[in-house]
Amino acid sequence: MTHPLDLSVAEMAARVNDPGDDLTARTLVDEALRRIEVLDARVKAFLVVTPELAREQADAVDAKVAAGERAGPLAGVPLAVKDNLAVPGVPLTCGSKILGEYVPPTWATCVERAVAAGCCIVGKTNLDEFAMGSSTENSAFGPSRNPYDLERVPGGSSGGSAAAVASGMVPLAFGSDTGGSIRQPAALCGIVGIKPSYGRVSRNGLVAFASSLDQPGPFARSVDDAATLLKAMAGVDPLDATSYPFEHEVVDHGEAPASGEVLGDLRIGRVTEFGLQQEGADCAARDLVEATCTTLVEKGAEQHEIAMPVAAQGIPIYYLVAPAEASSNLARYDGVRYGHRTDDAGSLIEMYAKTRDEGFGAEVKRRILLGTFALSAGYADAYYKQAMASRAALRDAFRAAFETVDVIISATTPSPAFRLGEKVDDPLEMYLCDVLTVAANLSGVPAMSIPVGQDERGLPLGLQIWAPLGREDVMLAVAREMEQVAGCRYTPPALAAEVMS
Ligand code: GLN
Q: How many structural domains is the chain composed of?
């Protein structure tokens, strides 16, 4: 029999909200905590598990229901939170040593909203330090592992969250996506991950990496589950001036268009530059995406080839803009305001230098140096300003493309999960993991990854759906349809069988 923790989150919440049903939030949370206990010594998805907080939140949900109130659309659903989002009273590390024992006093808005919708937080998940990376190997606390093959990476930077969901420990998790950090691990772990439109979700309480690119977003095992969490977390927030009241709201399961209504006149764009013709690309991802598009065309969708030369510049643009913003954002970790401080310095300048040298890992230092250089006098015109001009061209190119198509479809990553250690010594190779994802952040549009199948080794691959700015409703409708008609669904890894019955 399916354990209630393996139902859809809508079903879980409906049962928890029903006073006549014996399923409680407490039961769901206890089961998630049990699964973490069984599996996480191997997967290492969590940096900290928060049983007391989870049980306290679950009991509050159950008490509400007992009092005859509804406890929200996510009542009792266990949630894992990437450790760059603030939960008051729970240590916040960002996968770094520099924050020391820092414990935030306030909520990240999106997490607070999920809890208000009934979610119960079972822990904080591992990530590349300050979300810089594509494998979680840049975490100061060691890497997480891919539940489909423990010798491989789960992707990154939100690898802990993706691994926690894919292994069946939790049905929902939060990640953040600056250049691909939700979509790439979702693809490598065979689950659904959404990078919302820039401004859809408040960034308040998300530790800033590159402020003009960062967006928090959901991981889940199905499109509907992800949509339900996105809907709960989205919306304007007075604490984030870049949050935006988009005209079209996120549509979740209850209001979705009926199957068959979507594909009839859908126009799908295929960007030539995202065709994975480049060296090193794996054909499995390309072939599975092709096959899925063929199915959609058979069901009535139209397919259009779009040439977008500037899309080939995504990586150089991103690796100037993101480090430039990071070098400013990370200036606040100076040993005075937060966390770690060296106790061995003769002067203030030496204190800053030693603190930052001890506290930051190699990749973060590399980004700070790259960003500071790109912004420095004499170089800013050649690097930063040129990158910003290309970024504007990229945004215009997407705007133009979406005048002729409703969505764009591509692979999410050039290849499936790689082995631990395989790319750590080659930063450029690691950066190329994001070749198909960074353009969504640079242009602001929403994009999501759904599972598209597995390669011959059983490693998952992802398909990416891109939509116009503010049109998560269209993106989710297409994703849902692919789940139905093209079998783009989560298949649990063998490891999950130990806990799922
Ligand atoms: N892998 C990319 C980077 O290292 C993207 C990270 C992210 O989206 N947070 O910057």
A: 1
